[in-house]
TrEMBL record:
<feature type="signal peptide">
    <location>
        <begin position="1"/>
        <end position="24"/>
    </location>
</feature>
<keyword id="KW-0732">Signal</keyword>
<keyword id="KW-0449">Lipoprotein</keyword>
<feature type="region of interest" description="Disordered">
    <location>
        <begin position="28"/>
        <end position="51"/>
    </location>
</feature>
<feature type="compositionally biased region" description="Low complexity">
    <location>
        <begin position="34"/>
        <end position="46"/>
    </location>
</feature>
<protein>
    <submittedName>
        <fullName>Extracellular solute-binding protein</fullName>
    </submittedName>
</protein>
<keyword id="KW-0564">Palmitate</keyword>
<dbReference type="InterPro" id="IPR006059">
    <property type="entry name" value="SBP"/>
</dbReference>
<dbReference type="Pfam" id="PF01547">
    <property type="entry name" value="SBP_bac_1"/>
</dbReference>
<dbReference type="InterPro" id="IPR050490">
    <property type="entry name" value="Bact_solute-bd_prot1"/>
</dbReference>
<keyword id="KW-0472">Membrane</keyword>
<keyword id="KW-1003">Cell membrane</keyword>
Length: 520
């Protein structure tokens, strides 16, 4: 196949892969390094000298239209570090889910398969049936990998209390504020610390000519059709993370008064024309473009959005931006915890038949999680993507361009750690800003509001999630735009329940009540 790295022969797996099994009842507490393996694993993570690289077949997602080439310097560096021969089938982003389903149906799975988030019920059932290797008992023997797998994220991806997924780590901080500090300075204002102050800043950005061109042509808050900042506002109004536990029952966060308060906050901005009036149809690329043109000074979303406005500084060298996730709400400084992962790798038992091969694959991921492995994805190849000055990594503009073109997509696709163990280095100003913002937020005690039902299985939600989410999202937009009132919102909630929501809650609560660790 043309899109394989080197020779790619995907090993077969029989059609009985997805046999449903009973729910296992093991603890969902991630194993500690000091614990004894349940299966007696004792192999050192330091590989013996091997002349022949270990072949690993893999199916992975390509975030770019063109997959990496055979002699890609980053894949070559990874293979050298891990003593592996990676035979990767790269599948385009837009067709990946379809390809996974087709691959499963054909019975032709690789040794390592990337699956999406959330995990579908058929794959969860296969995990329960023992068709994928359970990695939990082995993690103590792979301390670098164990350290890379956040315990809270592991817990949220457990199936039957067991761990099957090697998660591609992402920051738990997924929400923040990005704002023009030069506009704040011009207007004599400071970055907001609560919702009232945020409203005042947004209003000033929309009405007080912050760009000084004498025209009323600036937008206060730029939003997009997904309402990317809603989670940040919902956290400030005291809302839950997808689900909440009330009266010892799993209930939807969208049924709370806090959810209504978050909608009301947006509704005020819309009525006062402080937000782009086309937010309901605006794509993210439009907001990036408008930000580069200097049309708005405030947006919400991931802190790293600040790094996507490089054109702004070319057009206006005096422009300055900053980002923060510190926002005080009714319950203090809270954030709805991000999933902490972007897909995960699983290992099919009938493709990886022996425990020895499983350990070799875990050894590969463990080696990727060492400082040396993290350094490859954080900085690239020395001399190509960075140089070392005074013991720290540094990039020329040309090296930065090569890093963006050759490394970032592979970091997204292959790295399973958060990169925190990579060597110190000099980042560009705005990369430093968003990294600092995420670090600052992560250090706040008790900041994260977790999803209490993240690990629970609902086949109905898996099959009807798109339909159910659309009911709530469409009604949310209509409420913000004043097309429906509280009665209309209540009707949407009733429709959600009648359209499958009641069955979803029945399934989630069955698992919640059977969970020996509920409430912990």
């Amino acid at each position: 196949m043309a899109n394989l790295i080197r020779k790619s022969s995907i090993m077969g797996i029989v059609g009985s892969l997805f046999v449903t099994a009973a729910l296992a009842g093991c603890s969902s507490t991630p194993p500690k390094a000091s614990e004894t393996s349940q299966q007696g694993t004792s192999e050192s993570t330091t590989p013996a000298k091997e002349d022949k690289p270990f072949v690993i077949t893999m199916m992975n997602l390509s975030v770019l239209s063109e997959p990496p080439k055979e002699n890609d310097p980053i894949i070559t560096a990874v293979e050298k570090l891990t003593n592996t021969d990676l035979q990767i089938q790269w599948v385009p982003n837009g067709t990946y889910e379809e390809k996974v389903n087709a691959t499963i149906a054909s019975g032709q799975l690789p040794m390592v398969l990337l699956i999406g988030t959330p995990v579908q019920s058929n794959i969860k059932n296969a995990m329960r049936a023992g068709q994928f290797w359970e990695i939990g008992p082995y993690l103590k023997d792979y301390p670098n990998l164990q350290k890379a797998l956040n315990p809270e994220v592991l817990k949220s991806t457990a199936v039957g209390g067991k761990y099957y997924q090697i998660n591609r780590a992402r920051s738990l901080v997924g929400d923040g504020m990005i704002y023009r500090t030069d506009w704040l300075d011009k207007l004599g204002m400071k970055p907001p610390t609560n919702l009232d102050e945020m409203y005042e800043v947004i209003k000033a950005f929309a009405t007080k000519d912050p760009d000084g061109n004498g025209k009323n042509d600036t937008i206060g808050l730029a939003e997009e059709k997904s309402i990317r900042g809603f989670k940040l506002i919902l956290a400030a109004t005291g809302g839950g993370n997808v689900w909440e536990i009330k009266n010892d029952q799993v209930v939807p966060a969208h049924e709370s008064q806090a959810f209504v308060e978050a909608m009301n906050w947006y509704k005020r901005l819309y009525q006062e024309k402080l937000i782009n009036q086309d937010f309901a149809i605006a794509e993210r690329v439009q907001n990036i473009d408008n930000g580069n043109k200097g049309l708005f000074g405030f947006r919400l979303g991931d802190n790293d959005f600040i790094s996507r406005h490089s054109e702004l500084f070319k057009i206006n060298p005096k422009a300055e931006m900053d980002t923060s996730s510190i926002l005080k709400g009714v319950n203090g400084t809270k954030l709805l915890m991000d999933s902490g992962l972007s897909g995960s790798f699983v290992i099919p038992k009938q493709t990886v038949k022996s425990e020895a091969d499983l350990k070799r694959i875990l050894q590969y991921f463990d080696k990727l999680s060492t400082p040396e492995g993290q350094n490859i994805f954080e900085w690239g190849a020395e001399g190509i993507h960075y140089t070392v000055k005074d013991g720290k990594a540094d990039r020329t503009p040309e090296q930065s361009a090569k890093y963006a073109a050759e490394v970032i997509q592979l970091q997204q696709a292959m790295q399973v750690s958060d990169g925190s163990l990579a060597m110190e280095g000099t980042y560009d100003k705005y990369t430093s800003k968003y990294k600092a913002a995420k670090k600052e937020a992560s250090a706040v005690p008790g900041i994260f509001v977790t999803n209490p039902a993240a690990a629970y299985n609902s086949p109905t939600f898996d099959s009807k999630r798109t339909q159910l989410d659309k009911i709530i999202n469409d009604a949310r937009v209509k409420y913000i735009m004043g097309e429906i009132d509280t009665a209309g919102w209540k009707a949407a909630l009733d429709n959600w329940r009648k359209s499958g929501g009641d069955k979803v809650l029945e399934e989630l609560n069955k698992e919640y009540q059977a969970d020996p660790n509920k409430g912990k």
